[in-house]
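#structure-requests
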Amino acid sequence: MPSLRCPCDVTLRGADDDELVAKVQEHLAAEHPGREYSREEILLLST
């Protein structure tokens, strides 16, 4: 299960890469307007 920890101390998890990318992009839009990362950048930062 891929995951990514945001610097705001929120950990996001997805069942697969597609779900993780969607969740991270939703989190960014809601909590960090103006911050956008590509799919590749998100996956590079994920574990």
